[in-house]
């Protein structure tokens, strides 16, 4: 029995079995010639699962930063403005408000973020008030999901989302207190749902961009290999090598997004980094192929 176990443990793997797994490639792609030889010779397919893994991991800090930004946007554009709304009554499903109409509330930047109007002058989100996020009419209240501050923006852009509309039923009789509304679970759930959607949206956007990017670039990679290295690689090899060689570029890109440090010319630097690592991958694979041929 023991001899059988030893034989099973010492059983040799097939020669085309990959030596390095995806997790190893995440850090070995920065320096290892052996990894790129393994990717070119023994990995199978397009390495799309590796691309998914890479983007899913590297996107976490950026998604967290966007989540914090959304939290600030909710505070600046919804909860704080709601807290500034004077208390008023809703009787038989209609707003009773004794202030001059339309009643406008501005944020610290002087932008109109809340409007109360029961006269019918403002029934929608007008272009005159691009930062308007809360609109109270005679028989309804409308909310817009706030926009985020992204990249080098000094201020958030006007929200383009469709408003969430809550109509007052004819039997509705209550005192509208903005501070209490801002603390209700419905507002908190809206914020939580929006935050939960950020990560899958970020991953999906980057993945859709880079799948097309690497697949298109793989054809050019074959030409690049023929011209500069006098070495033929298949389309699948070119695609795999590009995706793994793109790991440092993807990491730098998402670090720049996370730190809000995108600048003119950064695209050229990122592309040059990709070309440098792809050249390193081709050089490693060519050297190994020639060594095998000589031996």
Overview of this structure, please?
- The strands form two sheets. A five-stranded mixed sheet has the order 3-4-5-6-7, with helices on one face. It has a three-stranded antiparallel sheet with strand order 2-1-8.
- The chain starts with a helix and ends with a helix.
- A hairpin with a 2-residue loop joins strand 1 (88-91) and strand 2.
- The longest helix has 45 residues, at 185-229.
- The model is unreliable at 1-9 (pLDDT under 50).
- With 295 residues, it is α+β, with helices and mostly antiparallel strands.
- 31% of the residues are buried.
- It contains ten helices and eight strands.
- Helix 4 (48-58) runs parallel beside helix 9 (247-258) and helix 7 crosses helix 8.
- The chain has helices spanning 2-9, 22-28, 33-41, 48-58, 60-84, 178-182, 185-229, 235-245, 247-258, 266-294; strands at residues 88-91, 94-96, 103-106, 112-116, 134-136, 140-143, 164-167, 174-176.
Helicity level, as a percent range? 40-55%
Helix tally equals 10
Strand content: 5-15%
Q: Mean pLDDT, rounded to whole units? A: 86
Which word captures the global form? elongated
Q: Output the helix-strand order.
A: HHHHHEEEEEEEEHHHHH
Main sheet strand line-up: 3-4-5-6-7
- Please state the structural category: alpha+beta
Largest sheet: 5 strands, mixed
Please provide the count of β strands.
8
């Amino acid at each position: 029995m023991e001899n059988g176990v030893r034989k099973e443990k010492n059983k040799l793997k097939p020669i085309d079995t990959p030596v390095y797994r995806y997790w190893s490639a995440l850090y070995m792609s920065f320096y290892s010639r052996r990894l790129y030889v393994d990717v070119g010779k023994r990995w199978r397919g397009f390495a799309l699962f590796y691309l998914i893994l890479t983007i899913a991991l590297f996107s976490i800090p950026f998604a967290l930063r966007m989540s914090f930004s959304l939290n600030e946007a909710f505070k600046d554009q919804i909860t704080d403005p709601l807290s500034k709304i004077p208390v008023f009554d809703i009787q038989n499903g209609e707003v009773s408000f004794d202030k001059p109409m339309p009643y406008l509330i501005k944020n610290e930047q002087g932008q109109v973020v809340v409007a109360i109007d029961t006269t019918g002058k403002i029934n929608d989100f007008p272009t005159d008030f691009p930062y308007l996020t809360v609109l109270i009419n005679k028989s309804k209240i409308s909310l817009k999901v706030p926009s985020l501050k992204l990249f080098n923006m000094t201020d958030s852009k006007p929200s383009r989302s469709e408003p969430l509309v809550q109509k007052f039923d004819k039997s509705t009789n209550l005192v509208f207190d903005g501070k209490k509304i801002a603390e209700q679970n419905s507002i908190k759930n809206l914020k939580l749902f929006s935050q939960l959607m950020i990560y899958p949206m970020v991953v999906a956007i980057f993945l859709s961009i880079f799948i097309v990017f690497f697949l298109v670039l793989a054809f050019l990679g074959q030409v690049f290999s023929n011209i500069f290295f006098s070495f033929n690689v298949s389309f699948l090899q070119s695609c795999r090598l590009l995706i793994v060689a793109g790991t440092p570029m993807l990491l730098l890109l998402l670090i720049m997004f996370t730190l809000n440090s995108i600048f003119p010319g950064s695209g050229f630097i990122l592309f040059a980094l990709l070309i440098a690592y792809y050249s390193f991958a081709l050089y490693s694979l060519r050297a190994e192929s020639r060594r095998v041929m000589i031996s």
